[in-house]
Amino acid sequence: MRHRVAIRHLNRTASHRKALRRNMAQSLFQHGGIRTTEPKAKELRRFVEKIITVARKGTLQARRLVVAEMGDRLMADDKGEILEKTVVQKLFDEIAPSYASRDGGYTRIIRLSERRIGDASFQVLMQLVEPTPPAAAAEGEARSARRRRRAKKRRELAETVAKPAEGAAAEQAEPAEGESAPADSAEQAEDKAKE
What we know:
This protein is of the alpha+beta class. The protein has two domains: about 15-130, CATH 3.90.1030.10; about 135-170. The protein has six helices and five strands; from the N terminus they run αβααββαββαα. The chain has helices at about 15-30, 40-55, 60-70, 85-100, 135-175, 185-195; strands at about 35, 75, 80-85, 105-115, 120-130. It starts with 13 loop residues before the first helix and ends with a helix.
């Protein structure tokens, strides 16, 4: 029985699964998105989310952990020429800092309508989510500050409206000059009870 076994074996040996996961993660970081099957994408998402969270620290220890888990490789452009940056350098210099204000959820899986030729398996597009730009994060903070200011104004306005209403009620209770004071409601109730 497979009770409490969380991973998908994908019909591969452990070493094959590890190599597959590393290669797919490196391709995802290099290109920003890959096309694969749904079970592979769901298993890859667990791995990639943890790698990016470690890479966000930006320390030497974090870099060593990422290289130990994922490995490193050179990147090539569309023409096939080797670039100066490696996958891990791109991860630490570009990808991880862009998710500094985001607490997880770095990837998304989009199901595609067509099936793979050969085994007719469902295809998905796995992408890195667009990072929240610092300006948008600051805008979100400004919006929350604006909400706090508006709420404070509403409370102050409610207090000022409540104070004059209390003052008007007090003025109505005081008798005008030359008039007798109205009887208290408790005294009126006692008089009615005696009758």
